[in-house]
Amino acid sequence: YGQIVDVYLKTGCEPNKQWAFIIFASNAQAQCAKDSTDRRLTFPGSPGPCEVMFAKFQGKNGQDPLTAVSGGTYGVAGAVAPAGM
User: Fold this and answer.
1) Pairing state of beta strands 4-10 and 74-79?
2) pLDDT (tens digit, 9 = 90+) per residue, 33-78?
3) How many CA atoms lie within 13 A of 80 on its CB side?
4) Secondary structure of the chain in HEC code, one letter for each residue
């Protein structure tokens, strides 16, 4: 979908509750990834497709107002991973 700048995979979550941040080099690339995978991408053993959304920063402990990802990179976050992952 484009050039990936960074990936963060949250581990240690309960099955089917994992999530990741994938940072793309441009907004257009992130939008393409979101449009192509949101509620379409499935993993073996998962109960349903992933939900993909644009990541929002909310500051420490979620107390700040939502703001878009900054710094010239654009992120999408995906949730729902295969069972047992």
Assistant:
1) unpaired
2) 999 999 999 888 788 898 888 877 655 554 555 444 444 445 555 5
3) 17
4) CCCEEEEEEECCCCCCCCEEEEEECCHHHHHHHHHHHCCCCCCCCCCCCCEEEECEECCHHHCCCCEECCCCCEEEEEECCCCCC
